[in-house]
Design goal:
single chain, 465 residues, mainly alpha, 17 helices, globular
Length: 465
């Protein structure tokens, strides 16, 4: 498949393009959750603490979120295919560094920094290429559904696959698995040709990128420091908020000077999109937050190994798979707002079941019903929430809103590990576990409130949903 693939190519060729794009989203989501079942193994092998592993996981998700918008902008200058390839190579190098890491510092460098930067470069092209290549031949809604569904499956299957590899071989082999998948993606994507030529003269808002990244990193690091130093937490949160305010003022000033900003302020003036972004943030916060809390609790408090923990999470993986397979049929029958609301109600119910059934139960399978509900709930609302946001803007703004959407989703993932994880790590007892789950349920209610405020019908611009 060496020739360009465009509007007039048969659907079979487009399906071949979709495979590496969906695999790329899968492996990046997998990387965000598979370390959860390695907490005990990594902390013992690298002579670190549970909190040290939590920081590595959170920083990976945070670097992704902080650099996702700049990564999306660079696709205009460097080209979508080139950014995709460079991101995969950087990610692969990070995975190999992580596999060979002698200590926590190198693990953070390889996993959190290199894999995080690689993901921020390769994920925006996944969604931009999908929008461009599928726009005139078939509904991109199905393609987005497959990609976002693979993201959910990757996040949910991460603990199982990671647990199997860790128990059978080593936690280091799980990173070699990631490097292998990256090599496969590079091979499968060799025939993808960028449908739009890159523009090296396109301006890039470097100051905006620095301000936005610094603000997001400081805010999440403030949350992470909550259990050690409340004064430091307050300082980091305030300084982070100041950086984000400076970022907003900066991009608004660039717009007034008719210069291209890192992010258009017009993206935040669409009420439907704003509400959809809230639902995206909260659903990933709940999924990744629950994965970390339950995994850490099972391993540190209950003493389960990686494979036992991973097997328990098959309930969540099965739930996401079932609801993702039914997504297209459900979308034809129910409004997107209805599906997102149903997803939140189901997910919140799952968190409450985890809280109620696990208390005092010696059986690890007491976790299965709650995790199944969470998987079903998240799977139901993954695609509708993306469609709500994407379809709120015309085609010429799809690249920008795609980057913002991925940034907000990954920020939710990092906040899930930071907020719920910090509460758990502060005590690592039944009480701290219960407190973490209660906080996740409350945050879920916020997401449900945003879904309730979504309009029953909306104008469709880019996606046929």
């Amino acid at each position: 498949m060496s020739e360009a693939v465009g509007v007039g190519r048969p659907s079979g060729a487009l399906r071949k393009i979709l495979v590496p794009l969906a695999l790329a989203q899968f492996i990046c989501s997998f990387a965000g959750s598979n370390m959860n079942v390695m907490i005990t193994d990594i902390s013992k092998d690298l002579d670190t603490t549970v909190q040290g592993v939590q920081i590595a996981i959170t920083l990976f998700l945070l670097v992704m979120a902080a650099l996702m918008i700049p990564g999306g902008k660079l696709t205009d200058r460097w080209g979508r295919k080139r950014c995709f390839t460079i991101g995969l190579v950087i990610y692969g190098v990070g995975a190999l560094m992580s596999a060979a890491s002698p200590g926590l510092g190198i693990l953070i460098l390889g996993n959190s920094i290199f894999e995080g930067v690689g993901t921020a470069l390769l994920i925006p092209p996944v969604y931009i290429l999908t929008t461009l290549l599928f726009s005139d031949t078939t509904s991109p809604a199905r393609a987005f559904g497959i990609i976002t569904g693979m993201g959910g499956v990757g996040a949910a299957a991460g603990p199982l696959i990671g647990g199997l590899i860790t128990t059978a071989i080593s936690w280091r082999a799980a990173f070699l698995f990631q490097a292998l998948i990256v090599a496969v993606i590079l091979w499968l994507s060799r025939g993808i040709v960028d449908p739009i030529a890159p523009d090296p003269t396109r301006p890039f808002d470097t100051l905006g990128a620095v301000l936005s990244a610094a603000g997001l990193i400081l805010v999440v690091m403030g949350v992470l420091s909550a259990d050690n130093d409340l004064a430091l937490m307050a300082v980091l949160l305030v300084v982070g908020a100041v950086f984000l305010a400076m970022f907003f003022l900066h991009i608004r000033a660039r717009e007034r000077r008719h210069e291209e900003p890192l992010l258009s302020t017009g993206l935040f003036r669409n009420r439907t999109s704003n509400l959809g972004l809230v639902t995206q943030n909260v659903q990933w916060l709940m999924l990744i937050g629950t994965a970390f809390v339950v995994s850490a609790y099972l391993q540190v408090v209950r003493g389960y190994n990686a494979i036992q923990t991973g097997v328990i999470f098959t309930a969540a993986t099965g739930g996401i798979l079932l609801s993702s397979l039914a997504a297209e049929r459900l979308a034809k029958k129910y409004a997107q707002r209805t599906l997102i609301m149903a997803g939140f109600i189901t997910t919140i119910a799952g968190v409450l079941v985890l809280l109620a059934l696990v208390k005092g139960s010696p059986s690890p399978w007491a976790f299965a019903p709650g995790l199944l509900l969470i998987g079903l709930g998240v799977g139901v609302m993954l695609t509708p929430s993306v469609n709500v946001v994407q379809s709120a803007f015309p085609e010429e703004q799809q690249g920008e809103i795609s980057g913002l959407s991925r940034c907000i989703s990954n920020l939710g993932s990092s906040l899930g590990t930071a907020v719920a994880g910090t509460i758990l790590v502060s005590g690592l007892t039944n009480r701290s576990y219960a407190a973490s789950m209660i906080v996740l349920a409350i945050i879920g209610i916020v997401g449900l409130g945003a879904a309730l405020l979504l309009p029953t019908q909306q104008a469709q611009h880019a996606l046929d949903v």
